[in-house]
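Progress against Task 2.4 (sequence-to-structure conversion) is shown through the following example record, which the project officer requested during the mid-term review.
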Amino acid sequence: MDMEHQKQEVVGLEVVGVKSKTECVNPPAEKYSSYSCVDWKGRPADPAKYGRFRAAIFVLGLQGFEIMAIAAVGNNLITYVFNDMHYTLAKSANIVTNFVGTTFLLSVVGGFVSDSYLGSFWSIIIFGCIELIGYIVITVQAHVPWLKPSYCNVVLSEGLNCEEPKSSQALVLFLGLYLIALGSGCVKPNILSHGGDQFDGRDAKERRQMSTYFNFAYLSFSIGELIALTLIVWIQNHCGRDVGFGVSAAVMLLALLTVSAGLPYYRNRLPQGSPLTRIAQVVVAALKKRKLKHPSAPEMLYEIRDNARQLLLHTNRFRFLDKAAIIVPGEYIEKESSWKLCPVSQIEQLKLIMRIMPIFACTIITNCILAQLQTFSVQQGSSMDTRMTKSFSIPPASLQAIPYITMVFLVPLYERVFVPFARRITGNETGISQLQRIGFGLFLSTLSMVIAALVEAKRKAHRSPPISIFWITPQFLVYGISEMLTAVGLIEFFYSQSPEGMQSMVTALTYCSFSLGFFFSSVLVSITNKITTTASHGGWLSNNDLNKDHLDLFYWLLSAISLFNLINYIFWAKWYDYNRPTLPPPASKTNVNNIHQGVDKV
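Structure tokens generated for the chain above:
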């Protein structure tokens, strides 16, 4: 029967509808998963041949190589722009935080493009190539002398005789950096979502495998960071920036080849249209019906049911949006515009986004602290005794490897030891809830700033001879435990709470939190310098010499802000209600061979 002539049948006020053309057509239930999409040739993907770890292993390789490439550049970037490009310390710190912040902010763009138009695999390939071009640009600049200022020792000259880069030189630098930011930012959310697409959340075995995949994904991330912060940073410091940046380019090329090699094994989820359009439809429909009264029961609101749609249970928060699902007497539901009438599940998608935003906002401060570890704490280490032996010195940037070393060991211990122990006490299958896990992480990030402030005060009191660089190890170690709790908990929280068709965009909020944290760091540095500047001396962070600055006071300021943020988070965590969607029944042969409308029994 022609779909244009098929009619929707209303049972009570629940409407059974035809699947959207943007959704994947379900193959037979006894052979294929109901959430299967297509293989690389566009055919329905048989789960016996496609997906699971046979495919996800290639995505794990991409995860490790991509983070290895960008971490080697980003974590040692302040040394390059300060020593080689001759920017001031404060400006160099802002360049780094703006670069990292932009990278993570663009993850929202990558998630939107993937969910709406390209799908996760092709988003990875296209934006991965853009990222590769960015690495090549900065490699060329670091190698060609006339593309950067003449050599000058910024520390010995205190920056007085060192010229900043010309406009053309700065243009090349920022062109390379922001090509990397665009590419990496748009690749990141699709790595997690593409890996998750290889597992069927309705199948118990594959659901467990999906959980294992996310643990391995963060382990792969940590290993990539470790190699970047040790081996590749060492290459940059001893073989030249051009060689180090060239290694990043080669690693990114290897990442693209790895993910491409898995193409014959992937399950590819088709784009489902713009999530922003669905959100806008709810807002517009609710505004148009703002004067209507709420029905006496939520069961009277409009809903569409079919065999492919994930239904979200109605919630009582933000009830003004429910008016978008009120059926006006006399409305012909079949022809009603989506800008006038929206199903409950579509409304609940917007409610879900609104509920998670306060949680998202509370994680920004902990990423502001991460920005300090990647900027000022690296310079802090540069002013200490970096000798490990008479012939070997530790590159200060490599201290950032400590959090990732911590995660390599703690993530498996957390999963195998802590979770079973906590489960026996709390009865929660994950030991503690995702929000509790994030809360503990926020507390530890506050503690790491308190430690950093105390260590900086000690460093300034013992300048000659300088204290060992290992004194700043505790602040990195505590933050590593914090990130293991906060970052992994946040990824699991966003992914588990994401509605169907918004996986990439909602997962991108994890990276968006990083972005805003780094941007807030830049603003906080500038405001602090402006407020603390007097006629007799500059601001706390206005000099190129940490011995003349007041980094310890700045760390105490961050500790106070972080403590207030933790109290704010506890309030919103108690307020939050977890989303528990209802899953559709498995597809039948009839649904595949003849796209038709079934009737839900009430």
